[in-house]
Amino acid sequence: MEQTTPDTNEYSIYIPYVLKKITKTQIHTVFKSLNLGHINDIVMTPENEKGWSVVIHFQFWNTNTKAKELRNKLDAGEEVKIIYDEPHFWMISKLSYAIKRPKRANAISTPPIENFPFVNFESLLVIDNK
Predict the structure, then answer these.
(1) Per-domain residue ranges for the chain?
(2) Which pTM value belongs to this model?
């Protein structure tokens, strides 16, 4: 069986352009299926009215053969094509700058916004205790 012991160093990759219709959940599903490591966060930044740029932060990177080969290419400065829905693909690269995140002992990880329930504030009942 192939080794999947994680490399505990955090690692981030960059996708310069993703169509606006693509969600964090879709990106997460694609990268989870590649078994590269544990995704800590996905940051989507609007590029224009039709698309996003995306940074995927991994808490750790797996050490299986496919993950090692991909990381070696990214570390060498190569761009790699990830096919997410034939023939559609994303070109990924290693994030070229470090994003410093504050680490607190009591930090709480929040799930993606798609996982939160919808609350219709107009239908809430307000009770006045006067």
Answers:
(1) 11-123
(2) 0.69
Number of Cα atoms under 13 Å in the Cβ half of residue 29: 7
Whole-angstrom distance, CA of residue 100 vs CA of residue 77: 21
Could you name the CATH architecture of 11-123? 2-Layer Sandwich (3.30)
pLDDT (tens digit per residue) in 58-80: 999 999 999 999 999 999 999 99
Quote the pLDDT of residue 59.
92
Distance between the two ends of the chain, CA-based, in angstroms? 67
pLDDT of residue 91: 96
Strand stretches in 20-127, DSSP E? 37-48, 51-61, 80-85, 88-94
Q: For residue 20, what is the DSSP state?
A: T
